Amino acid sequence: MDLSKIYRYLDKLSDHQHEIVQDISVQHTAKLFGGNIGVLFYDVTTLYFEADYEDELRKTGFSKEGRHSNPQIILGLLVSLGGYPLAYCIHEGNKYEGHTMLPTINEFVSKYGLENFVVVADSGLMNNANIAELESQGYKYIICAKIKNESQQVKSWILEQPKRDCQMAEYDKGGGRRLPVGYTDDRAKKDAYNREKGIRRLEKAYKHGALTKGNINKRGYNKFLSMDGEVKVAINYDRVADDSKWDGLKGYLTNTDIPIQDVYTAYHNLWHVERAFRIAKSKIEIRPMFHFTRKRIEAHICICFVALKVYKELERMLKVSEIKMSIDKVLALAKTITTIQIKLPLNKEVYTQTMLMARHQRIAKLFNEDFWVTR
């Protein structure tokens, strides 16, 4: 097919198609969970463009992929448990990501009449204003708490807790807010390793005289830098020692009444939306984009949303059907299947026949329409 025809078709895709595919995805996902979508996971990513200029949608901003000089858009994604896509939103590339979440959730909840659900999101999306808004709407939430920014009283309580692997404790913050805090040996090792690696980089830069006042900020491990006198920049090892006290600790802020271990499990299922973004970027190749009109950008995202839904459904069906193959292998094998058309000479009837060879038998059931309908 001519590429220009595909581009013209993108112009015909409108918000109506967006709503249709979203409705289908929500209805199908709800069916998988017995009619109840109990958890909403929300996160955002940035998608860059191979372009040198900005417009009203494509803006330069903080890039999650280090493409700070490229125009980008922000893509917000709402998924269910298991990573099934429910809804998405598109925003200007320079918009604060914390302002994207509540409008998306409010619209989704209003449209589909959701009740008794929990919102799970990363702490970067949940400032105090967003938390207050969630509570005013009566929504339940679970987020990662910034425990090092808590009051001195709370921080002292956290550091007094015994550090035993997989041990969790809870602090009552009042007003229905709970602060579960957990410790794991694996996280402690990871925190110590990452800090040591960061310190080594700082020491190397210090040795070569590459540290200046401009490096003194709170970005990454630069937080360990301080002024030694009026001119010299040095590594503050007292800060390093204080930071090590927090190794292995992670906190969660919630207004739910579910057991503390369930809070931990629910938050760590946030990897489902992170994986959805990885699938979209690597398998579906959602970016980079070369479109420049808003309609085509929106159509491109809509098609990728459908592709993600199909990918997740195929993943589920492989598990249900006990086909022990990866999706990549199934797709590669499917590309070798040939379909032929036979036209009878007498009555001119046309028959279509899919030619499944011996190597295709492992996935043959996927081409049976009844197989999909009954599941």
From TrEMBL:
One GO molecular-function entry: transposase activity
NCBIfam families membership: transpos_IS1634 (NF033559)
The organism's taxonomic lineage, starting at the top: Bacteria, Pseudomonadati, Bacteroidota, Bacteroidia, Bacteroidales
Gene Ontology process terms (BP): DNA transposition
InterPro entries per the UniProt record, alphabetical: IS1634_transpos, RNaseH-like_sf, Transposase_11
Superkingdom: Bacteria
Domain Transposase IS4-like: 66-308
The name this protein goes by in its record: Transposase, IS4 family
